[in-house]
From TrEMBL:
One cellular component term from this protein's GO annotations in UniProt: cytosol
Gene source species: Nitrospirillum iridis
PANTHER family, per database record: HTH-TYPE TRANSCRIPTIONAL REGULATOR, HTH-TYPE TRANSCRIPTIONAL REGULATOR SUTR
Keyword Metal-binding: no
Signal peptide: 1-30
Residue ranges of the TM segments: none
Sorted UniProt keywords: DNA-binding, Signal, Transcription, Transcription regulation
Gene Ontology terms for molecular function: DNA binding; DNA-binding transcription factor activity
Protein name as annotated: Transcriptional regulator with XRE-family HTH domain
One Pfam family here: HTH_31
Stretches assigned to the HTH cro/C1-type domain: 53-107
Length: 161
């Protein structure tokens, strides 16, 4: 088996997709799909993701030293985590979130196509649909309603309540 594929499979096993999905508030399938997309487009699972640790630490009014003390580690380790020089594992996310009094998903930037972004897009389509119906453009409204229904179904799958 190709080394890169074996490394990715190992990474997936170590970072259970369902657990990661639960922490991030997305489905396990969305995590698997994102991983497959990254793999297909040449991303590597070893590249540390962008994170918001510094932002959340500052929002909590803590210094790197205070956070390090709460985590039982060094401020150098916290600096490496904040700067992305050290990959943010699931275990670190949980520990840091607990120390900062936030949710683990707050430590990483929202994915493109976040709930807010998707809701805005769907709201725009719904407003256009309303205008088409009011203007009597029923065929165009029907096509848009069909597309909107599919988009709402996809959003419900991607962002379960």
């Amino acid at each position: 088996m190709h080394f890169a594929i074996r490394r990715k499979i190992t990474w997936l096993r170590q970072n259970c997709m369902a657990c990661l999905g639960a922490l991030l508030g997305v489905s396990a399938m969305a995590c698997v799909a994102r991983t497959a997309f990254d793999f297909h487009h040449g991303g590597t699972m070893q590249t540390p993701p962008e994170n918001r640790i510094r932002e959340m630490r500052q929002r909590a009014g803590q210094t790197q030293e205070e956070l390090a003390h709460a985590l039982g580690t060094s401020s150098g380790q916290v600096h490496k985590l904040e700067s992305g020089k050290l990959g943010l594992s699931l275990q670190w996310m949980v520990r840091i979130a607990d120390a900062l009094g936030c949710h683990a998903r707050d430590l990483i930037p929202p994915p493109s196509g976040s709930v807010e972004e998707r809701a805005g897009q769907l709201t725009e389509k719904a407003q256009i649909l309303t205008k088409l119906v009011a203007a009597g453009h029923f065929r165009a409204a029907s096509a848009l309603a069909s597309d909107l229904g599919k988009a709402l179904g996809a959003a419900a799958d991607d962002f379960p309540d």
